[in-house]
Design brief:
The structure holds three protein chains of three kinds. Chain A is of the alpha/beta class. Chain A has one domain (38-212): NagB/RpiA/CoA transferase-like (Rossmann fold, 3-Layer(aba) Sandwich). Chain A has helices at 6-18, 43-55, 68-80, 168-173, and strands at 59-63, 89-91, 105-106, 120-124, 127-129, 134-137, 154-160, 164-165, 181-184, 189-190, 198-199, 206-212. The mean pLDDT of chain A is 95. Chain B is an alpha/beta fold. In chain B, helix 6 packs antiparallel against helix 7. Classes of the chains: A alpha/beta, B alpha/beta, C alpha/beta.
């Protein structure tokens, strides 16, 4: 007789631990706020998002929907300072053409580490959660692969008003859990030294948000 | 109303003035006080030290002693919390469902003093007079297990002559914790030191609370430091009138030999 | 080759606990002994006092912001309880989903087996170094030591873990393992251990963080294998989740070719939707932020994005023994936020090392003894004044004080021979169950009046265990008469 595999043994232990007449789990009451009450893109939600993102010491630039490209340029100008070149900026391959500043590099299937020496990247987002100031990237062509929003030291995210929802439950409901997701709430940060928050560790040290609409 | 007084084992044995004050306060408010002679202990010390089996007979004695009482009042948040949260569970685990139900039923009629005064009797001004600078330590079990909240403050604010000063870090434990104070004496002392530092920073003459056990701890430390700040149970302050402004208390600074 | 037989693990209800001789769940001293020493470390006390009060304030503010915190907390508790009741089914579903999306699932009965699996997987890639994301499970099993014993270089990449690793220290907090170190100490460690570090490094936390960034950047870019833990795993979709701040997690989860995730079996949640609760509870409870900077989720392998080889190791290591304890199993609901550490007056003073386990503080004082069997960590359930602050802040409402009390009883009841303490408590129980004996004993207590010889307090020097009290606190002299005695004298023995 072969000894039981670890799988069989662990599952068997769980069954032993729970006993033969385990209780049927009670229905979980989801009586917390499922929605914020305001529709996506509500002006008050946009205000809240700006407030919460800026609280993480990220910068938000707002613009009309038809001026995303110039606002992205302004964001890059602000973040990178004098002497930056458009070729140092990589954009997600699916970023809408009208958002894309001319002369920027478009990400392709190069080895991801080659993105490390780029100054900035520009991506779209899948959803933005106002209450927590969270942007979610979902690995779609417009958001780019995960390395794109990670390795360059400055990340510019373009958010449209219709993507802004109020609460975490509303945000997660819009996402596909089978995609690789990255939820971004401000620039990378650490509180590991005396619990004092310091922005900028391994991820992008600068986060710029362009909010269109 | 007839009120049965549960003195608690610690108050009965070490600080009887607290039970006396509780009785005289309730009598002054027009209630009949009875003291069941069969009372001893709620069983908390045994349960919290790991002797839950041994605690069953203590719980049974408590239930027996108070079985006829309409309302039971104790000058201790900790003991009342044990009556509410531990007694029935201890009996049930030992397989004594009858005792568990009797304990639950009794718990429903058992009140901590400040809860009894404010919730049951509906009074916050008990007519007390206590012309001292006082700070209040909201003991952990009163605060978190019973949720007495604002009640002791309401009662203290209504005391004539009393100057109530806020205690910094009030919600932090004093380090008593029953046998914790002995088993982890060093950590307990470290917690006590910080509690005393906060008490002393208020320049209060008196530190009060709703638990004689925590006061025994804080008072024992303040006495050892010869700080001059005394601990006085809430019941003693509320029992004080113009006739007796300084109730007895038993942690007067020791006189060095 | 000589095979070392690990010492036999104790069992709970026939279920094996975490084995001895491997991992970091057992201290070499009792809590009171370790704490006694730590309490004398003024710098430690100052560092911890400062850090925990800072984080308590932050947590309080962001929790108060949510009008539905109580409902979220109850939902979190209920979700965890429901998950545990069907843990076997959920794990099998997780395995199916991860496998369907290109991942490989491994099962590990204990630390030894998990370490073997991971070592074998790393060696199979041909690399000699791995980068790691902070993970409690891999600390628990002593994975770094196992990999190093196999000749592999292991690089911790979380800033606090890096500080601990470079300082050859031990973690002392679940979330901030280097909480016991202040900026000056960290600067000194970096100057001493990081090759080529700027000698002008200051103790500004920003500069220290930048030094860590430079030190690790190249390692991230060349790493071929990463090892992570997981905060949550969604059974219905096979989605793994890592919650972090610095971006070191993203580096490890994104850049290497191979990702190995070691996860305790209790980290599972049934559905994607359940994360809407936990992603609100966790960041606000742990770092006191509305949301942590980065949360990464992935399901198996995504072509063209991230590691193309993914292994998930499901770890028992005593968890099923915890599950078997009907009172204690609630401890498996823990989401490792560390809010209970930050509010614990005992943790704040004694520090994390005194607990001897990677899980310190109130949750550690219940989890460690249950994972190892209570006799292997018998002093931990007593390392609490039962003040209840931990229960009050726990985002999934684990009643830690009640579990502590339960484990004290488990310890007492595990003794084959009665201890002096047990005899005393049994005697006292008899007395307190019988009013006549009780009154006689109270009278005997008045003998203390003889010892105090007319003074208001008893002498400072008393025999143990009373000396534990009288070393630092006065004990009042017992009164002449008990309350009940005097009442009966004055009022008769009414009712």
């Amino acid at each position: 007789m072969t000894p039981p595999s670890a799988r069989e043994e662990v599952l068997g232990r769980i069954r032993t631990a729970l006993g033969p007449d385990r209780a049927t789990p009670a229905e979980v009451a989801r009586d917390y706020r499922l929605t914020d009450g305001r529709p996506a893109g509500d002006p008050a939600l946009l205000e809240l998002l700006v407030d919460r993102v800026e609280d993480y010491r990220a910068t938000v630039l707002r613009c009309p929907p038809d001026q995303v490209d110039v606002t992205v340029l302004a964001a890059l100008e602000l973040a990178l300072g004098a002497g930056w070149a458009r070729g140092d900026v990589v954009v997600a391959p699916g970023l809408p053409a009208e958002w894309r500043p001319d002369g920027c590099d478009v990400d392709d299937d190069r080895p991801p580490v080659q993105l490390a020496d780029r100054a900035a990247s520009v991506t779209a987002v899948a959803v933005a959660i106002a209450e927590t100031g969270t942007l979610v990237l979902d690995g779609s062509p417009a958001c780019g692969r995960r390395a794109l929003s990670l390795l360059p030291d400055c990340l510019v995210c373009v958010v449209t008003a219709d993507q802004v929802v109020g609460s975490v439950p509303e945000g997660l409901a819009r996402l596909d859990p089978l995609r690789p997701l990255t939820m971004v709430s401000g620039p990378s940060a650490t509180s590991d030294i005396e619990l004092q928050r310091v922005e900028g560790v391994h991820g992008p040290r600068t986060l710029m948000v362009v909010l269109a609409g | 109303m007839e009120v049965a007084l549960f003195a608690t084992c610690l108050v009965d044995t070490l600080t009887p003035s607290v039970a006396r004050a509780t009785a005289s306060l309730l009598q002054r408010l027009g209630h009949d006080v009875v003291v069941p002679r069969g009372q001893a202990c709620c069983g908390q010390m045994h349960v919290n030290t790991g002797y839950r089996r041994e605690a069953v007979s203590i719980v049974a004695n408590h239930v027996r002693a108070f079985s006829g009482a309409q309302a039971i009042v104790a000058p201790s948040g900790s003991c009342v919390a044990s009556i509410h949260h531990q007694q029935a569970a201890v009996a049930r685990r030992a397989g004594d469902e009858g005792l568990a139900q009797a304990a639950e039923e009794l718990a429903g009629r058992t009140y901590e003093l400040s809860q009894f005064l404010v919730d049951v009797l509906g009074v916050t001004d008990v007519g007390a007079y206590y012309p001292h600078r006082v700070t209040y330590h909201p003991t952990c079990h009163s605060l978190r297990l019973l949720g007495v909240g604002e009640r002791p403050y309401q009662l203290l604010r209504a005391v004539r002559g009393l100057e109530l000063v806020e205690l910094p870090g009030a919600d932090q434990c004093c380090g008593f914790g029953g046998t914790f104070a002995v088993k982890n004496a060093d950590t307990s002392t470290a917690m006590l030191t910080d509690k005393m530092a906060n008490v002393l920073s208020t320049h209060a003459e008196v530190c009060t609370a709703g638990d004689a056990s925590c006061l025994l701890h804080i008072g024992g430390g303040l006495s050892r430091l010869r700080s001059g700040t005394r601990t006085v149970h809430l019941a003693e302050i509320l029992a004080s009138t113009e006739d007796a402004v300084t109730p007895h208390q038993h942690t007067d600074p020791a006189i060095p030999a | 080759m000589t095979a070392t037989v690990p010492p036999k693990a104790p069992t709970f209800l026939g279920l094996p606990t975490a084995p001895r001789g491997v991992g970091h769940l057992r201290g070499d001293r009792s809590f009171p002994d370790a704490a006694r020493e730590a309490l004398r470390d003024g710098q430690l006390r100052a560092n911890l006092g400062h850090a925990t009060s800072t984080i308590r304030g932050k947590r309080g503010r962001v929790v108060a912001e949510l009008p539905d915190w109580a409902q979220l907390r109850e939902a979190g508790r209920a979700l965890k309880a429901a998950t545990m009741a069907r843990l076997d089914d959920h794990l099998e579903e997780l395995e199916r989903q991860v496998t369907a999306r290109g991942g490989v699932v491994h099962w590990a009965r204990d630390a030894v087996e998990a370490n073997e699996i991971v070592t074998r997987l790393v060696q199979a890639t041909g690399t000699t170094e791995v980068v790691k994301v902070k993970s409690m499970a891999t600390q628990e099993i002593g994975l770094n030591e196992a990999l190093e014993a196999a000749g592999l270089d292991v690089y911790e990449t979380d800033l606090a873990e890096l500080i601990v690793q470079l300082g050859e220290d031990k973690p002392s907090h679940i979330l901030v393992p280097a909480i016991h170190k202040n900026r000056a100490e960290i600067r000194e460690i970096f100057l001493r251990t990081i090759p080529g570090v700027d000698p002008g490094l200051t103790d500004d936390p920003r500069h220290l963080a930048m030094a860590a960034r430079q030190h690790l950047r190249e390692r991230f870019l060349r790493a071929r294998v990463a090892i992570s833990g997981a905060n949550f795993a969604v059974a219905e979709t096979g989605t793994l989740t890592v919650v972090e701040s610095e971006g070191n997690g993203r580096m490890c989860l994104t850049l290497p070719e191979t990702l190995i995730t070691v996860m305790g079996i209790e980290k599972i949640v049934p559905t994607w939707r359940d994360l809407e609760v936990f992603l609100q509870l966790l960041p606000r409870s742990s770092t006191g932020e509305r949301m942590n900077p980065y949360t990464s989720t992935w399901a198996g392998v995504t072509p063209g994005d991230g590691p193309q080889e993914f292994h998930l190791v499901l770890l028992d290591n005593g968890r099923t023994a915890v599950l078997a304890d009907e009172v204690g199993r609630e401890a498996l609901h823990c989401i490792r936020c560390s809010a209970c550490l930050n509010v614990c007056p005992v943790y704040e003073r004694a520090g994390g090392h005194a607990y001897g386990s990677v899980y310190p503080g109130p949750i550690g004082a219940v989890l460690s003894p249950m994972l190892t069997g209570v006799e292997d960590n018998a002093s931990l359930p007593y390392a609490s004044s039962l003040c209840g602050a931990c229960y009050e802040v726990c985002p999934v409402a684990i009643d830690i004080p009640s579990i502590l009390v339960h484990l004290r009883a488990e310890h007492v009841e595990a003794q084959e021979k009665p201890t002096a303490e047990a005899l005393a408590f049994r005697g006292l129980a008899k007395v307190m169950s019988n009013p006549r004996l009780w009154h006689l004993t109270q009278r005997a207590a008045k003998l203390g009046r003889l010892i105090s010889r007319g003074k208001p307090t008893l002498p400072n020097a008393m025999p143990p265990p009373i000396s534990g009290w009288t070393r630092s606190r006065d004990l009042p002299t017992p009164p002449k008469e008990t309350f009940v005695e005097s009442w009966v004298r004055e009022h008769g023995s009414g009712s």
